Every structure is written in structure tokens, then in C-alpha cells.
């Protein structure tokens, strides 16, 4: 299979994939891998396979193709392609919750000389690293990485990257229980989709709607939460995005549980059953869990440097300083710091 034929088959696969004929697209791309000797074409089709398996939730397959893509990039001796393949490897490990590996591969990306890490892909690397730090509960490092990713997005007018970072920031603030900011950032992502996203994949709208649903639920606005979650699930079903479907199901369960619809909340209870069975009726283990919780607070330094109280035990407004340290807003104002700074340069967005 020559270069022209390889290119035609890749485009055919993309058209099938975009029309939700995923299995047919995968069949076409796998045939390209079997028959094509064009290394550049093989590299591109491997990238398509990485993306497709990511959206289907087949993360082990995603990882397998990312590893093959690295070997192909090395054969081509192309530093830019090697960077792209290492980023896919980092993302694969992020999806598999191998967060330490994700951080390591992201650092490899940033250390490659003479590549686009300082321009086109640097923001995506920082975003993946931030997601990994968030998975490890290293909150300050996560915030620093998200801030870097936003700078890349602003400097390169990359609204798509900014949208993804805002969704990750929504997750960040939901975890540290500042629910107002957990809603603000996904709302900003939704604005970006409305303003720039006509040519984007619908997954960006679905992603922003899901994170809005989570924040609305945490704030007790259950009607808005249900509306956003239904919109996200509708798009996820249309596009076969199984990971997002699973997240929406869990969000639906949380909403029904908050409403007191106990039967419908059984899905959430099922997902938590393993931890419930371990602790049910075992007071010693329960006490050990409480002790471990406070140890984790100490290990992650997840406490306010002004008032000394732990962050993340209850809903409270937080403030991120330029150094990415986090404080309770009430403590910051009481400490005489003046008007709070909107985190990550979003003062103009707050005022808009």
C-alpha cells in the first residue's frame, strides 16, 4: 500500500468514525497497519487508534497502540512525532490511573529538545500532568500545572485547550469542595464551546455539561444538574463515549440519592459496595480510616495556612494565590490581604 492509498484509507476511516461507524473505522485502520509500509501513514493511523480506543474506554488497547507509535516515531527519527507519541503514552497511563507513570512521561515530553513542547503541545502536556497530580491528591502541583496549561492556551489562542483545562479545574475545585468555582470553570468551558465550538467535536460540549452537572448537584441545584447530565448523556450515547456514559450514570445516581430516590441511587451504592463491605460493622477499621484521612490531609498539605483547618471536609470558598497555595477565602480576607484575586487570570471572565 503506497502513500496515496494509505492517506485515502486513513481519511475513509475518519469519515466512518465521525459518522459513528466505529467498528468499521477500526477495521479500515487495522488494515492500513497490516498492509502499509509508509511509516508516516502508520504513525498517523496509530494516533487515530489511540483516540478511538480512549473514547471507547479500552485503555489497555490505547496503551498498546501508543507504545507501537513510539517505536514508529523512533524509526522515523522525528523529535516532534516522538513528543506526540510520548504524550499519547502519558494519556494512556492517566486513563489507567497510573499517575506516577503519567508524570514521568510528561516530564520526558518536556525534556525532548527541538520539539513543539514550547508551543503546540506544551499545554496539553501540562494538562495531562495536572490531571495526574490531581489523581495523586497533590493539589498544589495540580493547580500549578493547570495554570501553565492555561498560559499556553492563552498565548496560542487555543480555545479548545482552554475548554479542557476549565473542565479539569472544575474537578479540582469539586474535590477541594469550593463548589462555586467548581461550577464557574465548567460554565466558562461551555461559553467557549458556544463561542468557538461550531467546528469542534461534540465531546467538548458533553464534557462541559457533565462537569456543570456535578457542580450543580454539589450546590443542591438538582434540577439544573439533571438537565446538564441528560444533555451530556445524550451526546455520549450518540458518539459511543462509554467512559462519559459511565460518569453520567454515576452523576444520575448521586442526583437521585440527593433527592431521596433511594431505589435509583442503588447504582452508586453498588459502585461503593466494596469499601462499604470492608468497613461495615468493623469499628476498629473505621477508626483507622478516620486516622488515615487526617494523615492524608497532613501528607498532601491540604489545610489552610491561615486558619489551620483542613480543606475539603465541607463546602467552603477557597482562594488560590499566585504561588498556587490555597487558603480559605474567609481566612484570607480576615488576614488583611485585601480583595481576593480570581485564580488563573480569570478576573476578566468573572466581570464579563
From TrEMBL:
It comes from Panthera leo. Keywords: Metal-binding, Repeat, TPR repeat. Pfam families: Rapsyn_N, TPR_8. PROSITE patterns: 43_KD_POSTSYNAPTIC (PS00405), TPR (PS50005). One of its GO terms (biological process) is synaptic transmission, cholinergic. Residues 1-80 form the Rapsyn myristoylation/linker region N-terminal domain. The keyword Ribosomal protein does not apply. TPR repeats lie at residues 123-156. This is Receptor associated protein of the synapse. One of its GO terms (cellular component) is plasma membrane. It comes from the Eukaryota. The lineage of its organism: Eukaryota, Metazoa, Chordata, Craniata, Vertebrata. One of its GO terms (molecular function) is protein-membrane adaptor activity.
Amino acid at each position: 500500500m503506497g502513500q496515496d492509498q494509505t492517506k485515502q484509507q486513513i481519511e475513509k476511516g475518519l469519515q466512518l468514525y465521525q459518522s459513528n461507524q466505529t467498528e468499521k473505522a477500526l477495521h479500515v485502520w487495522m488494515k492500513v497497519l497490516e498492509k502499509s509500509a509508509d511509516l508516516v501513514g502508520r504513525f498517523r493511523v496509530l494516533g487515530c487508534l489511540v483516540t478511538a480506543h480512549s473514547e471507547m474506554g479500552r485503555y489497555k488497547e490505547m496503551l498498546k497502540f501508543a507504545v507501537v507509535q513510539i517505536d514508529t516515531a523512533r524509526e522515523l527519527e522525528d523529535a516532534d512525532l516522538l513528543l506526540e507519541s510520548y504524550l499519547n503514552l502519558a494519556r494512556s497511563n492517566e486513563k489507567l490511573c497510573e499517575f506516577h507513570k503519567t508524570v514521568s512521561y510528561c516530564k520526558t515530553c518536556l525534556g525532548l529538545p527541538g520539539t513543539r513542547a514550547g508551543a503546540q503541545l506544551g499545554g496539553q502536556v501540562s494538562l495531562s500532568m495536572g490531571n495526574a497530580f490531581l489523581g495523586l491528591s497533590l493539589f498544589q502541583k495540580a493547580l500549578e500545572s493547570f495554570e501553565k496549561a492555561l498560559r499556553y492556551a492563552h498565548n496560542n489562542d487555543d480555545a479548545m485547550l482552554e475548554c479542557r483545562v476549565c473542565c479539569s479545574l472544575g474537578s479540582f475545585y469539586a474535590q477541594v469542595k469550593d463548589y462555586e468555582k467548581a461550577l464557574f470553570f465548567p460554565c466558562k468551558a461551555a461559553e467557549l464551546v458556544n463561542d468557538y465550538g461550531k467546528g469542534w467535536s461534540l465531546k467538548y460540549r458533553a464534557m462541559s455539561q457533565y462537569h456543570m452537572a456535578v457542580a450543580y448537584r454539589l450546590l443542591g441545584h438538582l434540577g439544573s444538574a439533571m438537565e446538564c447530565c441528560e444533555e451530556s448523556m445524550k451526546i455520549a450515547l450518540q458518539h459511543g463515549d462509554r467512559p462519559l456514559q459511565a460518569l453520567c450514570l454515576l452523576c444520575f445516581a448521586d442526583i437521585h440519592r440527593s433527592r431521596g430516590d433511594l431505589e435509583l441511587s442503588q447504582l452508586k451504592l453498588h459502585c461503593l459496595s466494596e469499601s462499604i463491605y470492608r468497613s461495615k460493622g468493623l469499628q476498629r477499621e473505621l477508626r483507622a480510616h478516620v486516622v488515615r484521612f487526617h494523615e492524608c490531609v497532613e501528607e498532601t498539605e491540604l489545610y489552610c495556612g491561615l486558619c489551620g483547618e483542613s480543606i475539603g471536609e465541607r463546602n467552603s470558598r477557597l482562594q488560590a494565590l499566585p504561588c498556587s497555595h490555597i487558603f480559605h477565602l474567609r481566612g484570607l480576607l480576615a488576614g488583611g490581604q485585601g480583595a481576593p484575586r480570581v485564580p488563573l487570570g480569570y478576573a476578566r471572565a468573572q466581570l464579563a
